Amino acid sequence: MIGYLSIGLLGLLSLSIPVGVVLFLLGFGVDAFFSPFPLIRGLGNQVWSTSNNATLIAIPFFVLLGEILVRSGIATRTYAALDRWVSWLPGGLVHANVATATMFSATSGSSVATAATVATVAMPQAEKLGYDPKLFSGAIAAGGTLGIMIPPSINLIVYGFLTQTSIPRLFLAGLVPGLALAVGFMVITMLICMVRPSLGGTRRVFPFPEMLRALLQLIPIVLLFTIIIGTIYKGWATPTEAAAVGVAGAVLIAAFFGGISVQMFTDSILGTVKITSMIMLVVIAASFLNFTLASAGLGRELEQFLNSLGLSPLGTILVVVLIYIVLGFFIETLSLMVVTIPIIVPLVVAQGYDPIWFGILMIVLIEMALITPPVGLNLYVVQGARKSGKMSEVMLGSIPYVVAMLVMAGLLIAFPAIALYLPSVLGG
């Protein structure tokens, strides 16, 4: 059944059918050919029970928060401020790409939105200052992936919802690996530009008073992140309530900088509806597919397969990592998560691994899928913002950052405390 399912999934996706529709079609196929009794009667209940969950309300709020910050011009101000602090490093403005992506990851919760934001603001600067298009665009694509690791992350909310795992503890677990990845991206950029200085463009040093004034542009974003995450960890608000507070804070920041307009609100709400509808269609369709797969016995089949290999717990994790790397080449990230979580997570937990730790490891592997062809969404987002040049340039530029993610995955496996220390100390 696994083979038929994989062939069907890749075949339907190759026809450019929307992912949510593909998952529903696969669910109907499993029901028709592999299920011992008709499951279509449970479709309505699955759709209702999946969508009727208060936890998922956080998703449109976090999407709206990011949309407001982007469309009100806060992204441009943040990028300019960080430019003054990091452009003296080998690699120059490339570091501003990563730093800005890190800042917006801490508010938007979406990798694609983060990549699109930074690409729109940064690309004109790359052409003006003579940066290597491969490294510059690759850094933007990689920096955008931090949106699903650094809290508040929409993907972590979905993982917590599907696994019944504490979302605040997942947020804590993702903080250190997310920041470590950002630092790793910058270190790799520095090393590349020290070996090949021509790739890094012009390094610029700004007067210190100007650097201090630039910090004023960052204070609202830092405060907003502190309020959102602080209210969750202090127990003053649920993630959904904190997201609503974040939206109110984003509106106040936009008003302070003069970015409020009817058009801005209209575009933000329309963008939120589009993104949220896509996410919910995928989640609901995947829930129905998982329902049919469980009834057809795929979980037992996969468990028997892994047991037949006679692997140790570490060997099992390495096989799982390999599975995610391979699937990440072909399947969109959110779809990959919601399809595999109900099958893989119970097997991993049965081996004695912490579900919160595995959630962070999975997110790192999912991040890789965002910048590996042929389905890496961030690659297409950045190429779309470039409006010139070849797609292969973005793909080549992302390779060093894929290596950084592989290193992070290895470190998480070798040292689980990287993800688990903060939840154990602050998560209660």
From TrEMBL:
* Name by which UniProt lists this protein: TRAP transporter large permease protein
Q: Where in the cell is it found?
A: Cell inner membrane
Cellular component GO terms held in the UniProt record? plasma membrane
Gene source species: Pseudaestuariivita atlantica
Name the job this protein performs: Part of the tripartite ATP-independent periplasmic (TRAP) transport system.
Membrane topology label: Multi-pass membrane protein
Q: Does the keyword Transmembrane helix apply?
A: yes
> Which Gene Ontology terms cover its molecular function?
transmembrane transporter activity
